[in-house]
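Run log // design_07
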């Protein structure tokens, strides 16, 4: 079973930047598509970005397009989410997820980290 551990969350002012990291265990990280999802209080979990196992293709939600960038380093078993121009509405717990198939549907993602909180102040 793949274990995922997120880091890099914190408090940032609107307009600022954060870089989230997700460290994965195991020897099969490179076989998984990866994604970043977020969940704000009272809202459903949504996929904000996803990336294929090779890193060749990415998905970005309309709400973060042009501001967030997902990337991965398979040699380091790590996936990243660079978040720029942060807005208060980006405040949420951000989760790293892994899936056997490339997907932008949260319910189809199979493995999840415990999340890291991102708070954007106005």
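design_07 sequence
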């Amino acid at each position: 079973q793949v274990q995922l551990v997120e880091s890099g969350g914190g408090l940032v002012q609107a307009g600022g930047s954060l870089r989230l990291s997700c460290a994965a265990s195991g020897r099969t990280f490179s076989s998984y598509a990866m994604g970043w999802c977020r969940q704000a209080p009272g809202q459903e979990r949504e996929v904000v970005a996803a990336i294929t196992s090779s890193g060749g293709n990415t998905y970005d939600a309309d709400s973060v397009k042009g501001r967030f960038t997902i990337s991965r380093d398979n040699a380091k078993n790590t996936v990243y989410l660079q978040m720029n121009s942060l807005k208060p509405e980006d405040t949420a717990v951000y989760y790293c997820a892994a899936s056997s198939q490339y997907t932008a549907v949260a319910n189809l993602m199979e493995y999840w980290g415990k999340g890291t909180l991102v708070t954007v102040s106005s």
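The chain is about 0% helix and 50% strand.
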